Amino acid sequence: MFSPLRHAAYRNLFTAQVAALLGTGMATVALGLLAFDLAGADAGQVLGAALAIKMIAYIGVAPFASALSARLPRKTLLVSLDVVRAGVAVSLPFVSAPWQVYGLMTVLYVASAAFTPAFQAMIPDLLTDEAEYTKALSLSRLAADLESVASPVLAALLLAVISYNNLFVGTALGFVVSALFVVGASLPALSRIQPKPFVKRLTGGLRLFALTPRLRGLLAISLATAAGGAMVFVNTVVLVQSQFGLSEQATAWALAAFGGGSMTAAVVLPRLLDRMSDRTAMVLGAGVMTTVLLAGAWVAVRYPVLIGLWVIMGFGYSLTITPAGRALRRSSTAQDRPALFAAQFALSHACWLIAYPVAGLVSAEADPRAAFLVLAALCAAGALLGLRIWPAQDPESLVHSHPELEPGDPHLTEEAGRGRGATHAHPFVIDEKHDRWPGSGG
C-alpha cells in the first residue's frame, strides 16, 4: 500500500494532505466547542447551520473547480487556497456571534471545495500506473481515518493546557505546512492533450452517475453515511456537555472514539473485501449505523454508553465510505476519473446537506433522542435504496453489442471478443463508445 510514497512529488502532496487534515480535524472539535460557547444547549442548531454552509459550498464549487483546474497553474492554485484557509482559521477565535461564524466558514469551505478536486485531479498524472494510483486512493482514505482519530486525541490533550480558541491556531499551522509541502513538490505540467469542452468537463461526472447502476447505488448509501455521521458531528457536543454536563475534553474523546471505530474497520476491510463485494460491505455498514441510531434513542443516557455506541458507529461509517474509491475506479476511465471524483465529492455532500440541518434542527427543537430516531429512518432509507439500485450481480466485464460499428473497427479488434460480429465483453464503463449500460434498454 505504501509504495506510492517512494514517488517524491506524491510524497510531498500526501504529507500536505495529512497536515491539512490534522488542522481541519482540530477545527471540527474547536467549532463544536465554539458553537456551545455561543449558543449553549442550542449549539447543535448553530453547528448544523455552519456545516450546511459547508455542504452548499462543496456542492456548488467542486464541479466547477474540477473543470477549471485543467486550465489553472496547479501549484499556485493549491498554495493560494491553503493561504486563504489559514487566514480564516486565525480569524475564528475573535468571533462573537453566530453570523460571523457562518461568514468565515463560507470562505473556508469554498476554498476547501476548490482544493480537494484540484488535488485529486493531479494524482493520476503523478502516478500513471493504475495499481499505484489505486494504492494512492487507499492511502488517502487511511489518512482521513487517521485524522478522525488523531485530531480529536490531539485536541483533547491540548485542551488540558490551552483554551479551545487556540485550537484554531493549530488549524492555521496545518494549512501553512500543507502550503509549504505543495511548494516543495515537483508537479507535472498541464497535459498537452486537448481537454474536453468545459461543459463536458463540468457535467461528465454527473453523467457517469446517472448512467452507471453501481454509482446510483453508491449515492444512495452516501445518504446513509451522512445520516450516521451527522448525528456524531453535530450532536456529540450537545450530548456530552449539555445532557451529561461533562467537559470539552470529554467531547473530544467521544469524537476520538468514533474515529477509533472507523480506523478499526479500515484495518480489517482489506481482508473483508476479499470475501465480500463492495456493495455488501457498504450496505452492511449502513445497517450497522441504522442499528446504532435506533439503539441510541433509548440507551445513550450515560457517557460510557455513548463512547461504545460511537465506536460501533465509526466502524459502520468506515464500511460505507472506504470501498467507494474502488467503485469509482471501476466505473471510469483515467481521463474521466477527476470529473467522477468531483461529482462524487459534490453529490455525497448533497446528502450531508440533508443530514446536517436535520441533525441540528431536530435536536434543538425537540431533543437528541428525536434526532436519533429521525436520522435512523434516513439511514435505513439510504441502505434500502442502495440495496435496491446497486445490482447484486455486478461483474467488471459485461457482454454488450456495438451494432453501430463496422466489423473492423479498432475497438472491436483491440478488445478480447466473445460472441459474433459486434458483440464482445470487456471491463465496462460509460464513455464515448458506450453511452448506455447493457440491459438498460436500446
TrEMBL record:
Subcellular localization(s) per the UniProt record: Cell membrane
Major subcellular site: membrane
Composition bias type Basic and acidic residues, residue spans: 398-418, 429-442
Pfam family, one: MFS_1
Protein's UniProt keywords contain Cell inner membrane: no
Record keyword Membrane present: yes
Keywords of the record: Cell membrane, Membrane, Transmembrane, Transmembrane helix
Residues spanning the membrane: 12-34, 46-65, 101-121, 168-190, 217-238, 250-269, 281-301, 307-328, 340-358, 370-390
Protein name: MFS transporter
Originating organism: Brevundimonas staleyi
